Amino acid sequence: MTDVDDDFAVLVKASNSPAGAPKDFGGGALERQSISEQVANRIMAMIKSGNLKSGDRLPTEAQMGIAFAISRPPLREALKALVLMGVLESRQGGRYTVTDLSPRRLIAPFNVMLSVADYDVDEHFEARAVVDLELVRFCVERATPDIRNRILRLARDGRAFHHDPVAFRLMDIEFHQSINAGANNALLSALAQGLYDVALDVRREASTVPGVIEKSVGQHCAVADAIVAGDAKAAVEAYRAHLEHVRDTTKQSMGQNYEGSANV
């Protein structure tokens, strides 16, 4: 029996006695109000405290139901919520396991939310500015020489793709991911990638407009030059100008699409 099963075995035993549950789980039967949320919060608390770690397998639903003194429906609701959050995964046999808890996995529900919500281009790029500009500043401070050189090489290589939107978009992904890597902050990088992926279909169309790629490449080079020079202020301002350019061309593309659909 694993340590996790031992913890729950203690809970199961305690739930059948007047003493109640161990302090690690908050004690006693759960209140009926927002019961599934309380269960999810208790499991999350076990993960935060180290009682549960990546790869640990939770006991059966029957054992957890006894431990928390609740029926199966609210327990399953709590477990499904934790699966959607990327905290747990259900494997063959019906047992739940704690995931690797990687930033990319945990940020996935956020990406889905952004994808299905009504898209607001200004709100999107305001969020990108908050996250991306901080990553650029960190990149200037923390990036290794190899990463700085890669950023510079990718920026300059973009000059060959002024008239090749597909190749440019591939290079663009690598350029931005290299800056994120240089910042050396996994959680911010995952957030940045999630925000980058929003409304890509609109930005694909914007990149086909003559002159858009050429301007983006020039801005990439300005950002890269400042990063290599260790000039955080210049890098941030160059990147801000780039975001504004992408925002504006996205708006233009959305406007053209709207007008086209209205004329159909």
From TrEMBL:
Residues 33-101 form the HTH gntR-type domain. The keyword Transcription regulation applies. It comes from the Bacteria. Keywords: DNA-binding, Transcription, Transcription regulation. InterPro entries: GntR_C, TF_FadR/GntR_C, Tscrpt_reg_HTH_GntR, WH-like_DNA-bd_sf, WH_DNA-bd_sf. It holds the Pfam family FCD. Signal peptide: none annotated. SUPFAM superfamilies: GntR ligand-binding domain-like, Winged helix' DNA-binding domain. This is FCD domain-containing protein. The lineage of its organism: Bacteria, Pseudomonadati, Pseudomonadota, Alphaproteobacteria, Hyphomicrobiales.
